[in-house]
Structures are given as structure tokens and as C-alpha cells.
């Protein structure tokens, strides 16, 4: 999937750069949003997203999720990029959509509040160089694909319209710790609406 570049007026959007600041919880690195999947609890959506690159390597997934720091988890994944599933670039946005939907599904009270607090403003992941997931500052504008910000805005609309449901994407070999991910992988007993 190829997404177009967007431009957002600097003073007219909600930004997050790291987990710090008022909207830091929108970041995949944010702690306090545990994810329950296939009987395991992960600390962050970042760890889940990074682990899902490696469906055929449960030992790499295990190592990724044991890091307390999501940045370290991501760095560890970087060391094994050659083992990334071959269709990753085609599916990664779908995977990310699933990760943030799961974050909401299992942390509904606090995450829905955070999404709604952004009102109708554009949400932008402000980064120094990642124009795919976020956008960089160019004069008066943030410029980039801002894929994460756009997925968060899409999710916010579903919450606003009471249309949110967790959808398990149709992805071949969608596996975590050797088990296929399906509805039974993700308990909803932690879901409060
Ligand atoms: N290195 C780093 N530090 C941060 O503080 C970040 N927010 C990010 N971006 C996040 O990295 C994920 C994408 O990883 P890939 O580069 O596709 O492996 C995604 O969660 C971005 O929001 N990176």
C-alpha cells in the first residue's frame, strides 16, 4: 500500500514525538497500555508491531517482547531485519492498524479518552526523519505520510461514532509465538466500554 504525503499546519494539529507530553500516550512506545495476546502480556504496541515482522521466528519474537524498553525491542528487531517476512511492506499498515485497535480494545477507557481529547484536530507523529509513520517539520508545516497519525484519526472516528470493533486482519501466516492470531488470541475480558 502506498500512502500519499500530507501537509499539516504546525499550530493546527495535535502532535506527539515520544511518550512525553500531553499526547504521549498516542505513541506506540507508551507504557501502561498492556496487550494480551496468545496467552502473553506485552508491554507496548511497539513490541507487538516489531514482533509481528517475524512470524516464523518465535525465538526472535520472545526476545523482542522481553525488553522493558520499546526502543530496545525495536533495536533488537533491527538486528534481524533479514528475517523480516517477505511481504512486510505490503502488510505493515494493516499490522499497525491491528496493533492500535488491540491497544484500544484492551485499554478502552483510558485510550478512548485520549483519542477523544484530540477533538477534530489532525493527529501527527512528529519525527526528525520518519516520513512514513510520521511527519517532519518544514517551516510552518509538518510534512509526511503520517501513517500512524492517520490510523489514529481513523480509530478516533470509530470511537466517536460508536463504531469501533476489533477486526483481525486477513494476513497469511499471522502468527505470534507459533500460534495463529485469531479472535481467540485476544481476550476481551479486559475490554471496558
Ligand atoms: N526509533 C523510534 N523512536 C520513536 O520514539 C518512535 N516513535 C519511532 N517510531 C515508531 O516506530 C514504529 C515503526 O517502526 P519501523 O521503523 O517501521 O520498524 C512505529 O511505531 C513508529 O511510530 N521510532
UniProtKB/TrEMBL annotation:
<protein>
    <submittedName>
        <fullName>NADAR family protein</fullName>
    </submittedName>
</protein>
<feature type="domain" description="NADAR">
    <location>
        <begin position="16"/>
        <end position="159"/>
    </location>
</feature>
<dbReference type="InterPro" id="IPR037238">
    <property type="entry name" value="YbiA-like_sf"/>
</dbReference>
<dbReference type="Pfam" id="PF08719">
    <property type="entry name" value="NADAR"/>
</dbReference>
<dbReference type="InterPro" id="IPR012816">
    <property type="entry name" value="NADAR"/>
</dbReference>
Amino acid at each position: 500500500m502506498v500512502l500519499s504525503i500530507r501537509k499539516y499546519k504546525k499550530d493546527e494539529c495535535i502532535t506527539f514525538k515520544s511518550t512525553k507530553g500531553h499526547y504521549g500516550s498516542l505513541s506506540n512506545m507508551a507504557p501502561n497500555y498492556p496487550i494480551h495476546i496468545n496467552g502473553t502480556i506485552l508491554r507496548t504496541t511497539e513490541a507487538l508491531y516489531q514482533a509481528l515482522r517475524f512470524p516464523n521466528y518465535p525465538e526472535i519474537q520472545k526476545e523482542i517482547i522481553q525488553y522493558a524498553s520499546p526502543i530496545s525491542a525495536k533495536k533488537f528487531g533491527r538486528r534481524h531485519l533479514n528475517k523480516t517476512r517477505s511481504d512486510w511492506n505490503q502488510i505493515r499498515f494493516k499490522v499497525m492498524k491491528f496493533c492500535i485497535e488491540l491497544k484500544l480494545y484492551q485499554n478502552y477507557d483510558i485510550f478512548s479518552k485520549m483519542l477523544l481529547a484530540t477533538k477534530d484536530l489532525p493527529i501527527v507523529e512528529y519525527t526528525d526523519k520518519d516520513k512514513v509513520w510520521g511527519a517532519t517539520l518544514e517551516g510552518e508545516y509538518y510534512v509526511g505520510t503520517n501513517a500512524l497519525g492517520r490510523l489514529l484519526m481513523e480509530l478516533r472516528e470509530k470511537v466517536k461514532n460508536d463504531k469501533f470493533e476489533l477486526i483481525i486482519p486477513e494476513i497469511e501466516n499471522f502468527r505470534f509465538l507459533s500460534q495463529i492470531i485469531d479472535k481467540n488470541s485476544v481476550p476481551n475480558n479486559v475490554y471496558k466500554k
